[in-house]
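Here is one chain, start to finish.
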Amino acid sequence: MSNYQKMDFENSVAYHYDKLPPSRLNYALFVDPLLKATDALARYDQMLKNMHNSEILLAPLRNQEAVISSRMEGTISTMDEILKFEADSESDSDEAKHVRTEIYETILYQNCIKGH
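Its structure:
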C-alpha cells in the first residue's frame, strides 16, 4: 500500500476536483477587463519606447523580480545588497569582490532577465 493510500482524506477540502477545465465559460465576464489590460500594456510599452533611458523604470522592477524569484529558490538577498554590489562593482571597489554567494546568484538571475 502506498503512502497516498494510507492518508486520511476525510476532513480534507475538495478543490474543484473533476471541475476543471469548465465545460462552459462566459467570456463576456472577462473580455472587457482583458481589453483594458492589453490597452494599458500597449500604452506602457509605447511610453518605454519613447523614453530616452527606459532603464530608469525597468531596472528597479528587474531587481525586485530577481530578489523575489531567487528567494523562492532559497537564495536570500535584499535590494540594498544588490544595489550596493552594483555601485561597488562600477567603482571597482574591493568590496564587490567579497560578497556573499547569494548576491552573485541573484545578480546572475537579474542578468538573465535583462538578456545578458
